[in-house]
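anyone seen this seq b4? input:
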Amino acid sequence: MPNSTEQELKRQLALIMAIDTIRDQIDDGDDPSQMFDAIAQVLRETFEAEACAIMTISELTDEIAGIAALGVPQEQAIALCKQAMAKETPQTLETNLWAHTLGIRVVLQEPVPLGGLFIGRDNKPFNDADKQLLEIAESQIDSAILQAHRIWKLANRNRELEAIYKIDRLRDDVADEYNLIYNFTNLLVEHFEAEAAIINVKPYQDEHPLRALAGTLDLSESVQNAIFETADTIRIPQTISIPETLKDKQLLAAPFIVNGARIGAVVVIRDKPYSISDHRLMFAMTSQMDSAIVHARTVSELARRRRELEVIYRIDHIRDVESDFENMIQQVLHELCDIINGEAGYLMLYSAEEENELELKIETSEGQLSAPEYLNTIIHYSREALKRAELVYNNRLNGAIQSIIAVPLILNERIIGVFGAINSTRTYGFSRDDRRILKAITSQVDTAVFERLEIRQMRKVLSRSVDPKVID
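predicted toks r here
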C-alpha cells in the first residue's frame, strides 16, 4: 500500500499535469478567462474546497486584468485575492466565509506580482501538505498568467488594428464631416461596448460646433455641454468627473489635437470601469479620427473652392451674354441661392430721390418677398448693410425669415443697391463660406448692374427726343 509521501507526490503530479493540459488547450484566439476558470475548478476539486479564486493583474499596472471565482461572489473574491497578494507563502486569510482559508500571491520574479489566489473550505483545516501543494499550483499558474498577458496583448493589438482599419475605410468613403463623426460615434459604441459615445468638433467654416451622439443613453443638451466643459480641457485620454445625472456611469474622454491645435473631443460612457487597454484603444482611435476629420475638411474646402470658381465663371458668362437687366439678375440670384443654399434671393435698388430709398426690384420667389412679413425684415437689413457699407447677416431670426444675408452694391462711392438671400437650408444658417461667396459674386456683378442701369437711364432720357430705332 503506498505511503502518504507517495500519495502526495501523485497528487502533486496530477495537479501539475492538469494545469499544464489546460494551458496547452488555450490558443491565441481564445479568451484566457476560460483557462483560469478551468484551473480554479481543478484547484477546488483537488483541495476539496467550497470556493476558489484566481486574480490576475495587468502587466504594466496594478489594475485587475481578470478574476476567476468559483463558489464566492466576485467582489469578495477580489478582496481576498488582494489580501493573498501580500502573502509570500501559503497563509491563512482573514474572512468569516469559511472555516479555513488559504491564500498566496502569484509572482514570477520579485518584486513584480502577477496576481493572487485563495481556496476556502469548511470540512477540515489545511495541513503542511496542502500548503506545499498550493505553492506548486502557484508555480504553474505564474506561467499561465504570462501566457494570458501575451494573449491579451495580442487581442488588444488586433482590437486596435481593427478599429484603425474601420476608421480608415470611413475616411475614404465618407466625405461629409458630420456623417463622418456620426459614424465614428457608432464605431466607439461598438468597440467600447458603451451605452453612449459623443463627439464634439469645434467650428471650422460654420458658426457652431458639430456634435454627434450615438448609443442607447439619452443625454440632454445641458448634460452634453457639462461633459464637454471638462473634456475640452484634457490633453490625453483619461476618465473625467461626471455630471450628477451620470454619477453611476464611467466616462472616458480624449482630445482631438492636430499639429498642436485642439479641434474637439470624444467621450464614451458605460457602467464598466476602463482598463489600461481601453485607454490605449482610445488613443489609437482618436489619433486616426482627428486626422480623418482634418482630411474631410480639406476635401470639403477644395470642393467648395471648385464650386465657387464654377459659379463665378457661370455668373461672368451670364454678365457677358445677357443684355436684359432683369433676366441677368434673375439668373445671378438663382446661381447665388444654389451655391449658398438660400431659399430665395433678391436685389434692392437704391434711389436717393425716392421717399423709401430702397425698392425691391427683383426676387426669385415670384412675389413672395413683397409680403410685409418678408419685406420689412429685408428692408431693415438692407438699410443696415448700406449704413455699415459692409455685409450683414443674422442666423437667429423668428418668423417668416429665419436667416438673412445682405451685401451692399457700391461702385466708386456710388450706392447702387443691396444684394441678398434669405432662409438658409442649413441648420445653423449662412456660414462664413456663404458670406465669402456672396462677396465674390457681388464683385462680379456690381459693375454690370451699374452699366445696365446707366444704359436704361440713357434710353429713358433719349426716348423723349430720339426715335427708338436710332436708340437701338
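The chain is about 50% helix and 20% strand. The first strand starts at residue 51 and ends at 57. kinda curious what u guys think
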